Amino acid sequence: MSTPADLEQKEHLDRQRFTALLQGWAKALERGEDFQVSVAGKPYTIPAHALDIGRSRVEYEIDKGEYEFQLTLKWR
Questions:
Q1: Is-contact 22 16, C-beta < 8 A?
Q2: How far apart are the C-alpha atoms of 30 and 69, rounded to whole Å?
Q3: Considering the chain, what is the average pLDDT of its residues?
Q4: Per-residue pLDDT tens for 21-43?
């Protein structure tokens, strides 16, 4: 299997798409299933075992009245 080229995509989601993404991923995690996402128009898989083999963190930040909540999952 080839390794995809380096890629970074940031996307603004409305409430409906954001909740659908989180709910879909949560259901896949609960079932131990892979989760499919589209990045720059191409399908990618978050493997079911990514949470087990990777590093996860939750970040909260407040800076000058701006709030940030970030979920991160990294794996190889």
A1: no
A2: 22
A3: 91
A4: 999 999 999 999 999 998 888 89
Between CA 61 and CA 49 the distance in angstroms is 28
Tokens of residue 75, six digits: 């794996």
3-state class (DSSP) for residue 27: helix
**Helix (H), strand (E) at residue 37:** strand 35-39
Q: What is the torsional sign of CA 9, 14, 15, 21?
A: negative
The SS3 of residue 47 is coil
What φ, ψ does residue 11 adopt, rounded to 5°? -135, 135
Identity of residue 4: P
Q: Which amino acid is at 3?
A: T
